[in-house]
Amino acid sequence: MDNVGKADKLDTVISMLREATVDIHQMREEQETYKELGILRKENEGVRKENARIKEEYALIKTNMEVLKERLVFLEKEKRKLNVVLTGIDIDFYQPEDLKSKMEEFIEHKLKVKTSVKTAIKLGSRTCLISFNQLDDKIKILKNKSKLRYIKKARIYMNEDYTLQERETQKQLRIIAKEEREGENS
After folding, report:
1. Do the beta carbons of residue 174 and residue 159 sit within 8 Å?
2. Residue 88 CB: number of other CB atoms within 10 A?
3. Distances, alpha carbon 19 to alpha carbons 22, 26, 29, in Å
4. What is the tens place of the pLDDT at every residue in 145-172?
5. Residues lower than pLDDT 70 in the chain
6. Domain range list for the chain
7. What's the rounded Cα separation, in Å, for the pair 138 and 114?
8. What is the pTM of this model?
9. Pairing of strands 157-160, 117-124
10. Rounded Cα–Cα distance for residues 64 and 105 (Å)
11. What is the Cα–Cα distance from 115 to 140, expressed in whole angstroms?
């Protein structure tokens, strides 16, 4: 029994060694997994930092875009500050100089205001954009634009040269005012 007992002990030791070898392999695999996890964590941290940098850059770009939009609106309003739009008058001149002189004559005869037109641009068959050299000229003309209603057989209007956004706002305001007037009359 001595040999049998030694053989059993030897088998037990061999079995334990096999289990230990399997455990060691599992531990090595786990270590590799932990190393891979560490590498992934470092990569993830790098991605997070890059993402944060990109978000900051995006916020800065967005802020700059808003500033540029405001600046663009300001410049567009500034460009239109000396302009008026004349509608309802037949325009059969194609040369800018002819149109300019005819608009000066029209303003002088119909509105009774002597002014200097900087440019006149035909926008359509019955629409013209008129630019003045001075803001005072524009103000005088707009103050006298009510005289246009007394021109017989013509519906001639003179208005500020508004930006597209301002025209949309004016349109909405007119709709609201009309609804309120209709509501009061009902």
Report:
1. no
2. 14
3. 5, 10, 15
4. 999 888 887 889 999 998 888 889 999 9
5. 1-2, 4, 186
6. 1-80, 82-185
7. 11
8. 0.64
9. unpaired
10. 46
11. 9
